[in-house]
Amino acid sequence: MATVAEILGTKYPLIQGSMARISRHELVIAVSNAGGLGVLTSAGFDKEELRAEIRRVKAGTDKPFAVNLMLMMDNIPDLVDVIIEERVPVVTTGAGTPKPYMPAFKAAGVKVIPVIPSVKVAKKMADLGAVAVVAEGMESGGHIGGTTTMALVPQVANAIDIPVIAAGGIGDGRGVVAAYALGAQGIQVGTVFLAADETPVADAFKQAILAADDTATAVTGQRIGAPVRTIKNAMIAKYLELENAGASFAELESLTMASLSKAVFDGDVENGSVMAGEIAGMVNSKRPVKDIIEGLFNEAEAVVKNLKITY
């Protein structure tokens, strides 16, 4: 079996988690140039906007990168056309099945890596011809499943014969080693990049991440079946109040309308959605992407070297 780094064409077995509105060309270029797989978000882009972002990435790096597709979006067929036309080497997917698009991707030589929340879905993706899966635990930021990384990864690794990439709760070298111990062959990380120098978000967003501690996040949308993990703020408190009171989907939607853009672009971290994982409390400084990636794997080597198991 090929290693994750061989599959991705990267130095490190690391995928940068796609973060809606955030994972734009600046971050993707930095991650790919540092030896990981930068992943470009397609959320909110039309066909030509995505093409323009892809070309910006190509202008900034000659290393492999990916595009993420949130498959519930209405314009996925158009975006698939652009990905194939622009010869993007890797696609990651979420929020649906890539089944309708797999023949076109395979014919074009595009490697597909779905993000999955369960063993059942992992098996389906392996059967479709995915080259690997990202098993994402509920510790992650943004839209989440219902199983923790520690419980999910080994069960997925036992169930399929393609590489498993662990995501959720990985914030340092100890997390990297733990992912491998659970049966993963690579990692996907997102929250660790939120305060990176190259991440294109408002400074107030980065400061909210830096100020976070281990209990800083909350999960909304549980009742309506669309759980999302964000940092607690005034808007989240209001949402949880309404959700617990039995508010309708429309009421909840009206509260969160454009909330991600408010936080990312406007820096309104009280009325916007600051999506982040539970390891936000481990992000304590602004650093270049290169330092973050090298730090993860240098720390992992030190952890392995010094690991002592006694009985």
Automatic annotation (TrEMBL):
The keyword Iron-sulfur does not apply. CDD domains: NPD_like. The keyword Oxidoreductase applies. Gene3D superfamilies: Aldolase class I (3.20.20.70). Signal peptide: none annotated. InterPro entries: Aldolase_TIM, NMO. Keywords: Dioxygenase, Flavoprotein, FMN, Oxidoreductase. GO terms for molecular function: dioxygenase activity; nitronate monooxygenase activity. SUPFAM superfamilies: Inosine monophosphate dehydrogenase (IMPDH) (SSF51412). Nitronate monooxygenase that uses molecular oxygen to catalyze the oxidative denitrification of alkyl nitronates. Acts on propionate 3-nitronate (P3N), the presumed physiological substrate. Probably functions in the detoxification of P3N, a metabolic poison produced by plants and fungi as a defense mechanism. This is Probable nitronate monooxygenase. It comes from Weissella cibaria.
